[in-house]
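Batch job 17 of 40 flagged for manual review because the log was empty.
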Amino acid sequence: MPQKNKRVLLPLLLISLFVAAVLLPTTAQAAGSTTAYNKLRVAK
């Protein structure tokens, strides 16, 4: 892997990690509400 790519990938990796850390609670909440919704739909 060329050195230039590493220099570009490292900030991207850090940014994606930060975004994941920020979005994870929201995503978990969304997944939780989706499973609850699916359970309600199945229960009907």
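Reviewer: the log was empty due to a logging misconfiguration, but the result itself is present. The chain has a mean pLDDT of 83. Unflagging and moving on to job 18.
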